[in-house]
Write a sequence for this structure.
């Protein structure tokens, strides 16, 4: 029976790493949402003046015509590519995308996907993951370290502390949803 225990540990390890990465992303966005609550705005609500000026229709809400353009991106999408990932996938000069405006919707989506994959730093033209993912993002590494510290403090005192945490985290969403806005 010892092999079954080790097999369960080996199966739980990648799941816990994957889940903790999701928790790190949640911590990252929770921090900026909390910061935006006190400062009056989220950083992805507007286009940053330091980004290239060739981002067409960065603020989609200002012009309804932007929704009809295949190369239009929203400011949250631009924020994600420029600030979070520090790369320029899906953000191109307007003249590169002008030849795709007269295609059908399906052709436009396929052309945009092809342009996305061929211009991205993380994927090649076939969509396969490129092993050169770029440098480690310090802000995301910090969020991941905070997530692992939270895991450490959660299991430090044993199963008793996890029981109290589960009592709060399992019932809190139901309580928040049950109250009318």
């Amino acid at each position: 029976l010892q092999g079954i225990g080790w097999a369960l540990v080996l199966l739980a390890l990648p799941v816990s790493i994957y889940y903790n990465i999701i928790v790190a992303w949640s911590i990252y966005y929770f921090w900026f949402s909390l910061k935006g609550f006190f400062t009056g705005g989220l950083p992805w609500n507007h286009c940053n003046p330091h980004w290239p000026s060739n981002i067409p229709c960065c603020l989609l809400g200002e012009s309804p015509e932007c929704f009809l353009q295949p190369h239009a991106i929203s400011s949250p999408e631009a924020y994600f590519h420029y600030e979070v990932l520090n790369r320029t996938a899906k953000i191109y000069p307007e003249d590169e995308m002008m030849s795709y405006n007269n295609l059908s919707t399906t052709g436009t989506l396929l052309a945009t996907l092809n342009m996305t994959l061929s211009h991205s730093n993380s994927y090649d033209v076939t969509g396969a993951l490129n092993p050169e993912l770029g440098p480690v993002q310090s802000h995301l590494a910090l969020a991941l370290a905070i997530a692992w510290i939270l895991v450490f403090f959660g299991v430090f005192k044993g199963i008793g502390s996890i029981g109290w945490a589960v009592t709060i985290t399992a019932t809190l969403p139901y309580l928040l949803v049950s109250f009318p806005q």
The chain is about 60% helix and 0% strand. The chain has a mean pLDDT of 69. The two ends are 52 Å apart (CA to CA). The first helix runs from residue 2 to 39.
